[in-house]
Amino acid sequence: MNDSYVAALNTRKTTENWMDVIADNMTNVYTPGFREKQVNFKTFLGGAISDDYAKNLGQGKSTPGTANENLFLEGKGFFLVRSPEGKSVYTRLGEFTFDGEGVYKDKSGNTVQGYILNDKGEIMQGTRAITADLYQETAMKGGSLDIPTTNIKMWIDPNNGKYLGKYDDYEIKNDGTIYGKADNGKRVVPLYRITTRNFHNAAGLYEFKSGQFVETEESGKPLLGFGEIRSGLLELSNADFKANISYYQMAKLQMEVANKLIDSNKQLLEDALRLVGS
Question: What is the pLDDT of residues 220-232, one digit of tens each?
Answer without folding.
Answer: 999 998 889 999 9
